[in-house]
Amino acid sequence: MGVPIHKFFLFRGCDNMSTHNRDRMWRTADGRSIPIKDMEVSHLVNVINWVSDNSDAYPKGVLKLMVEEANHRKLLLFAEGKAYPQKVDGKWKVIDPITGKGSIIPPPQDYIDKVADNENYQAMFKKTQDKRKKRMQNE
């Protein structure tokens, strides 16, 4: 069956978080480790939505820390007139500061290619897509 999905999405130091630490590391399914402060806004938004849909697969505190990072950036990026993360209708999106419209930007193709053979990621991806389809049908 392979390694459990939470082993691919390792998030160090999430058990006892009392302050927002932007240097905490996020480990992606393709094996990279990224400080949350260095994540692209679209990546941060995708991670928040992913963890929200799969909270049982992550240590407590991961979602809270990612949302804290998004809120931190929202203020700074909005002030700079740059695209910023915002929760809209229950989902996080990247907001275009000119149009005010939000979007969810898919991961880059090279990432998709790297995780194509990761059975655990693919299983969780399918489960997540099924949940999202059901939720949309009920709206």
Explained architecture:
- This protein is α+β, with helices and mostly antiparallel strands and 139 residues long.
- It has one domain (5-122).
- It has 5 helices and 5 strands, in the order H-E-E-H-H-E-E-E-H-H.
- It has a 3-stranded antiparallel sheet with strand order 3-4-5.
- A hairpin with a 5-residue loop joins strand 1 (25-27) and strand 2 (33-35).
- Helix 2 packs antiparallel against helix 3 (62-80).
- The longest helix is centred in the last third of the chain and has 20 residues, at 119-138.
- The radius of gyration is 15 Å and the shape is globular.
- The N and C termini lie far apart (35 Å).
Kindly list the characteristics that best describe this protein.
139 residues; alpha+beta; three-stranded antiparallel β-sheet; two-stranded antiparallel ribbon; 45% helix; 13% strand; globular; disordered N terminus
Topology:
Layout: H1 5-8, E1 25-27, E2 33-35, H2 41-53, H3 62-80, E3 84-88, E4 91-95, E5 102-103, H4 109-115, H5 119-138
Antiparallel strand pairs: 1-2, 3-4, 4-5
Helix pairs in contact: 2-3
Query: Helix/strand/pairing class, anyone?
Result: alpha+beta
Number of helices: 5
- Tell me the count of domains: 1
Shape: globular
Number of strands: 5
What is the succession of H and E elements?
HEEHHEEEHH
What portion of residues is helical?
A: 40-55%
Termini separation comes to 35 Å
**Low-pLDDT stretches:** 1-18
Main β-sheet description: 3 strands, antiparallel
Spatial sequence of strands, sheet with the most strands? 3-4-5
Rg, please?
15 Å
Mean pLDDT: 85
Strand content: 5-15%
